[in-house]
Amino acid sequence: MRTAIVFICLMMAAIAAASDDFVYQGSFLWNGINGVVQSGDYLYCGFEDGIGVVNLTLDFTKKKLYSSMELNSPPARLHLFDTILVVEKDNGVLDLISIADPLRLRLLGSFTPDKPPFDVECIGSYLYLAAEYDGLIRYDISDPGHVVWNDSSMAGIRVIALARENSRLYALDDYNGVLIYQPEAAGIGQPIGELFLPYSGVSLSVMRDTIYAGVRPTGYMVGAAGDPEHPQYLGRRASYIRADIIDLIPGGMVLANSVNGFELISVAGADTLAQLFPLSGFSGPATVYMYQDRPYIIYPHRRQGFVAFDIGDPELIQTEYPSLVYAYPGPITQVQFSKSRLHVVGTNNWYEIYDLSDPARPVRSGRMINPPYHPAGFCSKGDTLFVSDVSLNAVFPFIDDGVGDPYSIFPQFMVADSITRPHLIPDFFSDGDLLYFCNDRVFNGTARNDSQVFPNRLRWGFPESTTSALLYQMMLYRVTDKGILNIYKVRENWNGFYLEDVGLKSLPGRVYQMLVVDTFMYAAGPGLLTLSMADPANPMILHSVNETGIVYEMQLDGHRLICAARSGLFIYDIADGIPRLLFSGGRFAKIVSCNGDLLVASDGHSVRVYMLPETAVEDPLPIPGTDDIPRLSGHPNPFNAAIMLEGHGFALRSGPVTVDVYDILGRRVRRMTVAADAGSVRMIWDGRDEAGVAAASGVYFFRASAGSDQAVFKAVLVK
After folding, report:
1. Any idea what the CATH number is for the domain that residue 92 is in?
2. What is the Cα–Cα distance from 529 to 508, expressed in whole angstroms?
3. Are both 151 and 255 inside the same structural domain?
């Protein structure tokens, strides 16, 4: 087994050394946050890609992250202790992240606890987990790279929540109340005190030697812990909501949960006043932030990132809702470079432009003044931007000279039907270009030139839903939601333009976008399709790429085709027509844009920035001796069922080359032997072991050897 592990490590090290992947630069826009915790002036957010940091002292309204870190699995909950952030991930792993420098988050280590925790607390170098019926479990994290089990306590029957104050640990037992511990280095020990609670608690907070426990369905219980060996129950208090979080603020308390909103409670003498602020759309528990002696409550939000409310009224008597000081604008619908600036379009009345000269520190260099109410996207022609508005069914033209804010030059013009992102097709008419829109039933085009706009020059309706449409050489290509490619010839008569039905073709699934380059059409859908356009009335499928999963959007950058896909980001060289994979990596993305070696992508929630490695340029004259280096490659990768393996440089002689296939545990799955022709080999692995049984999905390593020559290659089998 040890030999297998060493072998895998050597192979992975060789692969990593040869890898030419993206360099992640961080995220600077985000929403869909599922957790927030706060320490000092920094808010730590868990979102789909990993962890983002917000510097709250800069400005609530700055829609960018102070720093960020990618994780290999989405975070479920966050716990913050001094300079360590504990991240519970969807896959059950706990990551320990150093936040000593909020600008440079650093992964210290990871481990998988014996039981999924209900809650987490930390005292010193020990991490405590509430493990329900397994009681309280302690792990030693003094060496974060090697976390070990340290101790446990079964004093509780069903431990579901933890809290700490000073060096004491409080554990909420659903049956026994609150157990109070004074842990030592020798172990957790027995409880030094127990606060009996007459009702079942659901949450726990301890502040100023006072215990607060939320009760289902509403209300909370209070206990005094000044003498931890003899705590006293002080009674149950009424509230409008179940308190998942209880925190003290100047003049009173705030109670909150992620379903009903929050409640402010003020105690002035004998009078108790409660005010409920019902809200919705939150994705996790709130945190209370004190800034300049004024409290704010901050919630993670499914659509708006996080929302922050000012709850600093000294009397806590509100007749209106607390002031909403921050809300993220909403889903992102387009990211696009124009004049080397990145335009980011969101649906909720916002449109911003960023300078990415320093990819790790984006700077907002412009915004759309008087923007459309619900922009969906834009296209450009020279200095003119055409921004579509899906609420007003209108197009707004703006001038963008590459500096500052774009400004309006033409009045808006209306479109007959609801629209999506606009597209610009040059030279369709002799008097200018065609600006067109397409929704699920209507193709709507508008002829224009640099000085005039002629609304609704084209309008064609269809009975079936449309997922993608494209105009090319007086032909309209339209794909239905059934994956049928309809082909029309655009004709003109005295009454305008009309469509002549040419034919149809069945495609393997829904297509989201089509592009035409020279005589090739590229269709994004279940994978990446390449079709020949030699006969525009009869496109022929030439090539299919399935390693991407669903491809949502494509963009051209010279001879490079950039794809945003379910499996991440893929870049292909299409100089010869048929796509050849150059790079792959990154995260799931729906929209993408590229500017030289700078790549941005978004899943609709955040904007991620990557730097591409420099593309190697092959020298037409081989350097002496380089052909002696053995090389092994394969395609497609990832693959389904079979992979083509190619090897070169095996002693430059004819003879047998052995290819061994290993799984991730180092077990040999298959051995194949093939004769080399002038040092080159070519073979197919059909994804089966020696017994002919289909191998399971996962990572596989290929080692080709001929005498002392060896080469290693890694591929992923996806079924």
Report:
1. 2.40.10.480
2. 9
3. no
CA–chain centroid gap for 388, Å, is 25
Residue where one domain finishes, among candidates 100, 132, 167 = 100
CB-based burial label for 480 (10 Å; 0-12, 13-18, 19+): buried
Check residue 432 and give its pLDDT: 59
What pLDDT does 127 receive?
Answer: 94
Q: Residue 376 region, left (φ>0) first, then alpha (ψ -120 to 50), else beta? A: alpha
Q: Scanning the structure block, which residue is given the tokens 């450009």? A: 380
**pLDDT computed for residue 126 by the predictor:** 94
Q: Is there a domain that residue 367 lies in?
A: yes
* Three-class DSSP category at 532: strand
- Residue holding tokens 């592990």? 5
Alpha-carbon distance of 712 to 13, in angstroms, equals 10
Q: Which tokens in the block code for residue 72?
A: 């290999």
701 CB burial (10 A radius; 0-12, 13-18, 19+): buried
Burial class for 607, CB neighbours closer than 10 Å (0-12, 13-18, 19+): buried
Q: Residue ranges of the chain with pLDDT lower than 70?
A: 1-22, 24, 30-31, 59-64, 267-275, 279, 302-305, 314-330, 426-432, 447-456, 614-629, 651-655, 664-666, 678-679, 708
3-state secondary structure (DSSP) of residue 480? strand
Residue 576 is encoded by which pair of tokens? 């010869």
Describe the chain by its helix, strand, coil percentages, rounded to 5: 5, 55, 40
- On whether the CB atoms of residues 702 and 713 are closer than 8 A, the answer is yes
At residue 630, the 3 state secondary structure works out as coil
State whether 339 and 450 are in the same domain: yes
CA distances from 486 to 436, 474, 489, 536, 538 (A): 18, 14, 10, 12, 10
pLDDT tens digit sequence for 18-73 = 334 567 677 777 667 778 888 888 889 888 778 888 887 775 555 567 888 888 88
Strand order of the β-sheet with 442-448 is: 423-429, 432-438, 442-448, 453-461
Q: What are the residues whose beta carbons fall under 8 Å from the beta carbon of 196, sequence distance 6 or more? A: 176, 177, 233
Q: Which candidate, 460, 391, 449, 452, places its Cα nearest to that of 424?
A: 449
What is each CA distance from 11 to 218, 583, 638, 646, 658, in whole angstroms? 57, 20, 18, 18, 16
Same domain, 197 and 141: yes
> Whose CA is closest to 307, among 258, 346, 264, 270?
258
How high is the pLDDT of residue 621?
32
> Residue 532 falls within a domain, yes or no?
no
Structure tokens at 628: 């002696």
Give the per-residue pLDDT at 267: 60
Sheet holding 643-648, edge to edge: 631-635, 643-648, 681-685
DSSP character for 715?
A: E
Strands (E), 356-483: 363-367, 375-381, 384-389, 394-399, 407-408, 413-414, 423-429, 432-438, 442-448, 453-461, 466-472, 475-480
C-alpha–C-alpha distance, residues 559 and 629, integer Å: 29
Cα 85 to Cα 107: distance, rounded to the nearest angstrom: 9
Instruction: Say if residue 147 is in the same domain as residue 212.
Output: yes
Query: Measuring CA to CA, which residue among 457, 460, 411 is closest to residue 439?
Result: 460
Burial class (CB in 10 A: 0-12, 13-18, 19+), 675: exposed
Residue among 119, 309, 131, 116 at smallest CA distance from 213: 119
User: What CATH number is attached to the domain comprising 686?
Assistant: 2.60.40.1930
Q: What is the total count of domains within the chain?
A: 5
Domain that holds residue 191: 113-216
* Residue 273 · residue 280 · CB < 8 Å: no
